[in-house]
Amino acid sequence: MALQLAIWGAWAPKLFPYMGMLGFSAGQQALVGSCWGIASVVGIFFSNHFADRHFAAERFLAASHLIGGLCMLGAAYSTAFMPFFAFYLAYSLVYVPTLSVTNTIAFANLKEGKDFGTVRAGGTVGWVMASWPFVFILGAHSGPEEVRSIFIVSGVISLVLAAYSLTLPHTPPKKGGQGDDIDALAWRRALGLLKKPFVAVLFFVTFIDSVVHNGYFVMADAFLTNRVGIAGNLSMVVLSLGQIAEVLTMLVLGTVLGRLGWRKTMIVGILGHAARFLAFSFLADSVAAIVAVQLLHGICYAFFFATVYIFVDEAFPKDVRSSAQGLFNLLILGVGNMVASSFFPNLVARLTGVDGVVDYRTLFLVPAGLATLGALVLAFAFHPPTAAPAGALEDA
């Protein structure tokens, strides 16, 4: 899990600033950003209906990370748009399915399902650790020749994981046949649940929050370096503080859910985004405040996204839970990512003056407003069938 998420964490914070250094237009950046959305849609059907039934999970993981690592190295040395886009799209198509395959391996081989949380925490540790080499690799004001190392580091980690995957426990493919029909029916039923008002409201708000959440990764690194004045080799470390806070926040999530219930916990989570972007808008001259506000990432993720996953597991019928989780995951990793990758680069371009200076105050008021809208919709329109997780009040 640590290696799996380190591959992603090595390039994610600086992808959009790097594309700006290469002179890619907002439209070209949006196309690159759409790769994960494309891969998420393809991955749902490829990993669920083909890979899971024809390949042992550990071998699929090894092959995917071998190809992905080579694609990352190709992207590192591609400065023209088309070859960079081709390598990044190919990487996305093989990497995104591995996010679910690693979970498959874990659940198939762990003796207790409850141990998954501890194992998955390794992913957060990997994301944080991936940022630290760049303190030494990058300079305070690195150009594209240096910043392309984000892909080199990611590619090397991917190749290491490809080799390590072959040492994982053998996890044979699922048997095909009737299960295909059952899966298709589960997907149709999961989509049909959107007719229920509380599911439709949660789906809409999750879309809003996923756009805001992914927009943070599009804009944050450039803001830290260009406006706040944090050195380019330290910005990724500053951003990683949010992942550290995420681990700590997850530890108290159960208690918070027991005390506040579904609606209030989600509202706190989405308002965390609003608070963070308002701080970006009005406190940009205070380095200490901007660094400290990164800790809100833990609240943003755990109190909303993690809570959504728990809610789906509690509130949806057992036979469609997996498909419903995949549906919300597609929204968060796919659709929300695509919209954010298109909307925010174009908004940045529109708010950039002739002197090249971005109006960050106005820029960040947009996601702050979207997050506030999502919180209001939750407050007045989200009426879940249960107030809190079963047994949560007793546990709390």
Automatic annotation (TrEMBL):
<feature type="transmembrane region" description="Helical">
    <location>
        <begin position="230"/>
        <end position="253"/>
    </location>
</feature>
<protein>
    <submittedName>
        <fullName>MFS transporter</fullName>
    </submittedName>
</protein>
<feature type="transmembrane region" description="Helical">
    <location>
        <begin position="290"/>
        <end position="312"/>
    </location>
</feature>
<feature type="domain" description="Major facilitator superfamily (MFS) profile">
    <location>
        <begin position="195"/>
        <end position="396"/>
    </location>
</feature>
<keyword id="KW-0812">Transmembrane</keyword>
<feature type="transmembrane region" description="Helical">
    <location>
        <begin position="364"/>
        <end position="382"/>
    </location>
</feature>
<dbReference type="Pfam" id="PF03825">
    <property type="entry name" value="Nuc_H_symport"/>
</dbReference>
<keyword id="KW-0472">Membrane</keyword>
<feature type="transmembrane region" description="Helical">
    <location>
        <begin position="147"/>
        <end position="166"/>
    </location>
</feature>
<keyword id="KW-0813">Transport</keyword>
<feature type="transmembrane region" description="Helical">
    <location>
        <begin position="85"/>
        <end position="110"/>
    </location>
</feature>
<dbReference type="InterPro" id="IPR004740">
    <property type="entry name" value="Nuc_H_symport"/>
</dbReference>
<dbReference type="InterPro" id="IPR000169">
    <property type="entry name" value="Pept_cys_AS"/>
</dbReference>
<feature type="transmembrane region" description="Helical">
    <location>
        <begin position="324"/>
        <end position="344"/>
    </location>
</feature>
<dbReference type="InterPro" id="IPR020846">
    <property type="entry name" value="MFS_dom"/>
</dbReference>
<feature type="transmembrane region" description="Helical">
    <location>
        <begin position="122"/>
        <end position="141"/>
    </location>
</feature>
<keyword id="KW-1003">Cell membrane</keyword>
<keyword id="KW-1133">Transmembrane helix</keyword>
<feature type="transmembrane region" description="Helical">
    <location>
        <begin position="26"/>
        <end position="48"/>
    </location>
</feature>
<feature type="transmembrane region" description="Helical">
    <location>
        <begin position="60"/>
        <end position="79"/>
    </location>
</feature>
<feature type="transmembrane region" description="Helical">
    <location>
        <begin position="198"/>
        <end position="218"/>
    </location>
</feature>
<dbReference type="InterPro" id="IPR036259">
    <property type="entry name" value="MFS_trans_sf"/>
</dbReference>
